[in-house]
C-alpha cells in the first residue's frame, strides 16, 4: 500500500521537469514522470497517481485535452490535475483549463513554495472529500439499521397498529408507552409532533407524498436531524387503508453537510481576503512606477518618495508571503529552529526594526521597559524577533491613531515574560478564546483599511510553542485595549562574544569584485545589475547555461549570483560546470533562488554553492555575502 502521495509530473522540457520533480521529492512526495500527453494518459490509468502536474504545452496532445480525457474517464476522473503553463497566457485559456476539469492553474515562474503549497492544498481538499464520503457511507449503513416503519396507524380510528424499535433509539423511551392512544404519543414525543402528523395527513390527501427533514431537540438537549416520510398502505381487505410513516436519523449526514459548508465558506472568505491584501500594495506600487516614468530628473524629492513607497509596499508583500509559508511549514512539521543563546536587548532591537516604521506611521507612542541587567533566552533569533514583531504590529493595527503601546519585559521565576499592551479596540469575551485560531480576526480600527490575513497571531502561538513557551491574551472588553503575554524559559549561559567584522580595507577591496548575474528573468537581472553597480561592483549577465559558461570564460568573475530554476539546465548543473572552469575556480558561487527549504540549502551546498540566498534578498545581506561574511540571513531561508 502506498504511503506517500504519488505525483505524475508531465512536461516535455527536461530541465523544467527535473526541477519540479526535485522540488516535489524534497517535499516528501513520490514522483513519476512523463514527457508526452500519450504517456501521461497511460500512466494515469496504470499507476493511479493522486495528482497530475500537467504542463499545457506538450508535443503530441495539448495539456488541456489531456486534462479533459483524464476527467472524462471514470477510472481516472478522481485524479487531481494541477495545470501549469511555462509562459503568460490569455485569461480565456485559464478559464478553458478550469472548465475542462483542472483543479487549479499555475503560471510560470512558479516558486518552489508556491508549487508545494498548491499541491498540499489540493491533496488536503481531496482528503476532506474522502472523509466526507466515508462519513456519508457510515451514515448510510447506520440509516439502514435505524430506518424502519416508524409507526403504522389506522386513520379511521387513530389506533396505533405498529411502533418500530427505532422509536426507542431516536427518542430514548420505550414504545410501550404508545399503546394507549395516538394523542398521548404525539404530545409526549415533541411539542410540534401533533402539527407534523396533521400536515402529513393533509399533504398525503393533496399530493399523495409527504417527505420532510427537520431538526429536533431531545429531552437530554441533544440535537438530531430526522427525515420523515409518510404514505398510504393498501390493506388486503377491500376499503381498508393504513398510513405508514418511515423515519430516518440523518444527523451524521447533516453534520457532514455543515462541515462542508463551513469549510467552503472559510475558504472563500480567506481567498477573498488574500486577493484584497495582495492588491492593496500592488496599487501604490503601480502608481509609484507610473510617477517615476512621468517625473523629470530634477524632481529628486518626488522620485525619492516614490522609491520609498515601493520599498514599503514590497516589504508588506514579503511579510504576507512569509507568513503564509511559515504557517504551511509549521502545519506540516517542516520548520527547523536554529536556537542559540540570545540577549533580550538585541532580540527587542531586532523586533523593533520591523515594527517601528508601522508604529510611527500610525502615530503611536511606544514605551519599552526592559530590565537593567542582561537577560538571556535560548531560541531562534529570527523566529523570536518575528513573534515580538507580530505582536507589536498587531497592537499598532488594532489601535486607533495616536494610541499608546507598551512593551514590558520581566523575569518571573525561571521564565522571561514579554508583554505587549495597547490602548486599542479591545477584544470581546466571545472572541478572545479563538483569537489565536488560524484566520481569526477582530474588527479593525476605523482608520486602518488593511485587515491582514488573520494568521499573524496563529503564527505567534505556534512559534512560541516550538520554543517550549506559552502565550496568553487578555482584554476587559471592547474599547479597553488588549494585552498579549509571552512566557519563555530563561537561559543562564552567556555566549562568547561575536567575531570581529572584516576590516574596512577588506570591505573596500570586496566592493570592486566582478559579479556575474545568471537568471532567466530579464527584469530581475537588470535590477540586480543596477543595484550591484550602484554599490561599486562590476557586473555581467547571462540568462541560461550556455550563455553563463561563455560569459564566465571571458568575464572571469570573482562571484556568481546564480538562479537555480534555469530553463533547460538547472542551476545545480550550471554551478558544477562553472566550478570545472579555470576562470571560475576561486569564484564565490551564490545561489539566489526562490527555493527556501532546509533541504534546498543542502542540495545547493552539495552541488558546489558557497552560499544560499532566498528571494527577495536585501542589499545588506547580499553585500555581506560578497564581502565573505556569513550572517544568519546568508545561510538559508527561515524554516
TrEMBL record:
| UniProtKB keywords | Phosphoprotein
The residues covered by the Histidine kinase domain are 273-492
Using the record's annotation, list all stretches that form the PAS domain: 135-208
Q: Which InterPro entries match?
A: CheY-like_superfamily, HATPase_C_sf, HATPase_dom, His_kinase_dom, HisK_dim/P_dom, HisK_dim/P_sf, PAS, PAS-assoc_C
Q: Boundaries of each Response regulatory domain copy?
A: 6-123, 514-630
Entry keyword annotation includes Phosphoprotein: yes
Kindly state which reaction or reactions the protein catalyses.
ATP + protein L-histidine = ADP + protein N-phospho-L-histidine
Matching PROSITE patterns? HIS_KIN, PAC, PAS, RESPONSE_REGULATORY
Q: Which residues form the PAC domain?
A: 210-262
Name it. histidine kinase
Origin species, per record, is: Noviherbaspirillum aridicola
Amino acid at each position: 500500500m502506498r504511503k506517500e502521495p504519488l505525483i505524475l509530473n508531465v512536461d516535455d522540457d527536461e530541465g523544467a521537469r527535473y526541477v519540479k520533480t526535485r522540488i516535489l521529492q524534497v517535499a516528501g512526495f513520490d514522483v513519476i514522470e512523463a514527457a508526452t500527453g500519450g504517456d501521461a494518459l497511460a500512466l494515469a490509468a496504470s499507476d493511479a497517481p493522486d495528482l497530475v502536474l500537467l504542463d499545457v504545452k506538450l508535443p503530441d496532445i495539448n495539456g488541456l485535452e489531456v486534462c479533459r480525457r483524464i476527467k472524462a474517464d471514470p477510472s481516472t476522473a478522481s485524479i487531481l490535475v494541477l495545470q501549469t503553463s511555462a509562459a503568460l497566457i490569455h485569461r480565456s485559456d485559464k478559464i478553458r483549463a478550469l472548465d475542462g476539469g483542472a483543479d487549479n492553474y499555475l503560471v510560470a515562474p512558479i516558486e518552489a513554495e508556491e508549487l508545494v503549497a498548491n499541491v498540499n492544498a489540493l491533496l488536503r481538499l481531496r482528503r476532506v472529500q474522502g472523509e466526507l464520503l466515508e462519513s456519508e457511507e457510515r451514515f448510510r449503513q447506520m440509516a439502514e439499521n435505524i430506518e424502519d416503519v416508524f409507526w403504522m396507524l389506522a386513520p379511521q380510528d387513530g389506533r396505533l397498529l405498529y411502533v418500530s424499535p427505532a422509536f426507542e433509539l431516536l427518542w430514548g423511551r420505550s414504545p410501550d408507552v404508545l399503546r394507549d392512544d395516538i394523542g398521548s404519543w404525539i404530545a409526549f414525543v415533541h411539542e410540534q409532533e401533533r402539527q407534523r402528523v396533521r400536515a402529513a395527513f393533509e399533504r398525503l390527501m393533496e399530493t399523495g407524498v409527504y417527505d420532510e427533514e427537520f431538526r429536533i431537540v431531545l429531552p437530554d438537549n441533544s440535537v438530531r436531524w430526522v427525515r420523515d416520510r409518510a404514505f398510504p398502505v393498501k390493506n388486503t381487505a377491500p376499503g381498508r387503508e393504513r398510513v405508514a410513516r418511515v423515519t430516518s436519523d440523518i444527523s451524521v449526514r447533516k453534520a457532514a453537510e455543515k462541515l462542508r459548508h463551513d469549510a467552503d465558506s472559510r475558504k472563500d472568505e480567506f481567498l477573498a481576503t488574500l486577493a484584497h491584501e495582495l492588491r492593496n500594495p500592488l496599487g501604490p506600487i503601480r502608481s509609484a512606477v507610473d510617477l517615476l516614468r512621468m517625473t523629470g530628473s530634477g524632481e529628486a524629492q518626488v522620485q525619492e518618495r516614490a522609491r520609498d513607497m515601493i520599498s514599503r509596499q514590497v516589504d508588506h508583500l514579503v511579510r504576507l508571503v512569509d507568513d503564509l509559508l511559515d504557517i504551511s511549514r509549521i502545519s506540516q512539521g517542516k520548520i527547523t529552529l536554529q536556537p542559540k543563546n540570545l540577549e533580550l536587548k538585541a532580540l527587542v532591537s531586532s523586533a523593533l526594526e520591523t515594527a517601528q516604521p508601522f508604529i510611527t506611521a500610525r502615530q503611536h507612542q511606544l514605551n519599552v521597559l526592559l530590565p537593567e541587567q542582561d537577560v538571556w533566552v535560548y531560541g531562534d533569533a529570527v523566529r523570536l524577533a518575528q513573534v515580538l514583531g507580530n505582536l507589536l504590529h498587531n497592537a499598532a493595527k488594532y489601535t486607533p491613531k495616536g494610541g499608546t503601546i507598551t512593551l514590558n519585559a520581566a523575569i518571573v521565576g525561571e521564565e522571561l515574560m514579554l508583554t505587549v499592551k495597547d490602548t486599542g479596540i479591545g477584544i470581546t469575551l466571545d472572541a478572545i478564546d479563538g483569537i489565536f485560531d488560524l484566520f481569526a480576526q477582530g474588527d479593525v480600527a476605523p482608520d486602518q483599511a488593511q485587515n491582514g490575513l488573520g494568521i499573524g497571531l496563529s503564527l505567534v502561538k505556534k512559534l512560541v510553542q516550538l520554543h517550549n513557551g506559552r502565550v496568553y491574551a487578555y482584554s476587559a472588553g471592547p474599547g479597553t485595549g488588549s494585552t498579549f503575554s509571552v512566557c519563555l524559559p530563561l537561559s543562564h549561559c552567556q555566549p562568547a562574544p561575536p567575531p570581529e567584522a572584516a576590516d574596512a580595507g577588506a570591505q573596500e577591496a570586496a566592493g570592486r569584485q566582478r559579479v556575474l548575474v545568471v537568471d532567466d528573468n530579464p527584469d530581475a537581472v537588470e535590477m540586480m545589475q543596477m543595484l550591484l553597480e550602484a554599490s561599486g561592483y562590476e557586473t555581467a549577465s547571462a540568462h541560461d547555461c550556455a550563455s553563463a559558461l561563455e560569459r564566465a570564460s571571458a568575464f572571469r568573475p570573482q562571484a556568481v549570483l546564480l538562479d537555480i530554476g534555469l530553463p533547460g539546465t538547472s542551476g545545480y548543473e550550471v554551478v558544477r560546470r562553472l566550478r570545472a572552469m579555470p576562470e571560475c575556480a576561486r569564484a564565490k558561487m551564490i545561489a539566489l533562488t526562490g527555493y527556501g527549504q532546509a533541504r534546498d540549502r543542502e542540495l545547493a551546498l552539495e552541488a558546489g554553492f558557497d552560499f544560499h540566498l532566498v528571494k527577495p534578498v536585501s542589499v545588506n545581506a547580499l553585500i555581506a555575502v560578497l564581502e565573505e561574511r556569513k550572517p544568519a540571513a546568508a545561510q538559508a531561508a527561515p524554516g
